[in-house]
Structures are given as structure tokens and as C-alpha cells.
Amino acid sequence: MDITHNLDGGVLKEILVHGNGTDKPHKGCMAYVHYTGSLSDDMTIKGFDLAVSSMACDERSTFQCHPDYGYGLNGFEQIFPPNTSLTFEIHLLKWTWEDISRKKDKSITRQILEYGVDNATPSSFSFVNIHLEKEENGNVIEERDIEFRLGEGKDLSICPGIEFALTKFKKKKEKSRLFIYGKHTFLNFGNYDFKEVYVIKLNFFEKFEESWSLTSEDRIEQAKFFKQKGTDYFKMDNFKLALKFYNKMEGYLKNDISITSYLNSALCNLKLHKHIQAKNDCENA
């Protein structure tokens, strides 16, 4: 069985023992395997990753890997000559879903259900449009379409874990199942074992062009937009979101308007009782 994406015969698979269930690991998951064959510990090959991502839990399979999916035309040191085909047997013992939490403590994990398009990622204050399903014991208990700016989710009963996870969605139209624990949930901040499960599809998000890709005039206009947004949220006492816009503005310009941004950032940090950061903002101004 050819398991390559374009069916070029680069990795051929034969199942020896079928696994359990239909879920399979994807890029970013932590997989635990036992394999028989020759691989270098110092260099991974895309054929091996592709093989593991095709397997169910407890499955055993053999794989024949073309040099293009192995060590290629150059081989690897004295171990693998150029243009070496590889054969290996893999037993997928278990895996864990991709850990996308800030501290890598598995408090937010992701199962990608549908890969998205494009290459951009939402910023921490992008305006987003999502479809949300909340699951409990495998059943959907809540379903809705929502538009909001990241940082304002609490007003719409969006838990902090979803807002953070959306900044890790690699592409528009991605659909993923999120497993969110403890402090990142909306209803129970104290109990780490408390878990909420959501299926989120990112339909649209506001994309900001990087400063290096803009003309001087466009950078000024973008900076003014960030400044105005920061001021709007400051007036609404949303100091965290205001600070994000002011900080973003600082990366676009280094002139009088940026000095104003530093001073506004200092004021936000004072409101948030972050006195050292406020002092640094004043020094930068």
C-alpha cells in the first residue's frame, strides 16, 4: 500500500497486525514506537514520520522506503551509502496528542481533524470567526458560530484555552479537537484534572502584514490603526488587550508616534500593576 501523499511509491506499507480504533498521530504528536531496522539517531527521515502517521495504536507494519524518503542521494556518513532504500518494521505502542500549551505541561492539547489552507496564523489580538462545538462523553452539548477579537472571549463565554489555542492554528480553515485542562477552562480554574473538550474550526481571521513588507506610508497607517485600537480598549478598561495593540505598534515605527505608544504601554502596565515593565516603557520613550 502506497502511503505517500502524491502516490509516488516512495513509502510502501504492509500491515502485519491491525491496530485499535481509527485515530492516528499527526505532526506534533508524541509517538512511542518499537522498530526493527536501520535508522540514524542523529538524523530523522521523512519516510519514518510518514509511516508512523499512517498507523493506529498497537498496529504493527513493515515499510519499504525509497531513498527520496530516506537519506537521499548523499546517504549518511559511512552508515548509509548514497541511494539506499530502507526497510523497517514499526510497532506503534501509543501516542499523545500535540501539546500546544505555553509551558508544555499538556494543559492544552490538539488533535488536528482537518488541515487548513494558507500559511498565516492568528495573532494574539486578531479578529476571528470560528465554529465551536463543545463535547461531553463524545456527544455535542453546545454548538455555535462566533465572531470576536482574541482577548475578548470571556465576554462570550470563550475559555482562555481556546483563545490561546487559536494562535497556534497554523492555517485558515483548520479544524481541531482541543483538550483543555484546569486553569485554561472557563468554568473551573482551580482543578487541574477538570477537562473540557471542544471542536473548533477557524473560518476566518484578521491578518496583519509584517512591517518589513509594507511601504513607509503603509507602516504609518497600520501603526495609527494599532494606536487607535489600543486607545479604544484602554477606554473600556481592557488594559491587557490595549497593551497588545500598543506593543504591536512599537514594532512598526520608531518615531514620535512610537514614543506615544511607549507612554501608553507604560500606563497600561501601571494599571496592571506591572511596575518594572512600566519603568522600561518610560525608559524606551
From TrEMBL:
Catalyzed chemical reaction(s): [protein]-peptidylproline (omega=180) = [protein]-peptidylproline (omega=0)
Keyword Nuclease on entry: no
Origin: domain of life: Eukaryota
Pfam families linked: FKBP_C
UniProt xrefs under InterPro entries: FKBP4/5/8-like (IPR050754), PPIase_dom_sf (IPR046357), PPIase_FKBP_dom (IPR001179), TPR-like_helical_dom_sf (IPR011990)
Enzyme nomenclature, EC number: 5.2.1.8
PROSITE patterns: FKBP_PPIASE (PS50059)
GO molecular function terms noted in the UniProt entry: peptidyl-prolyl cis-trans isomerase activity
Swiss-Prot/TrEMBL keywords: Isomerase, Repeat, Rotamase, TPR repeat
Stretches assigned to the PPIase FKBP-type domain: 10-96
Entry protein name: peptidylprolyl isomerase
Organism: Aphis glycines (Soybean aphid)
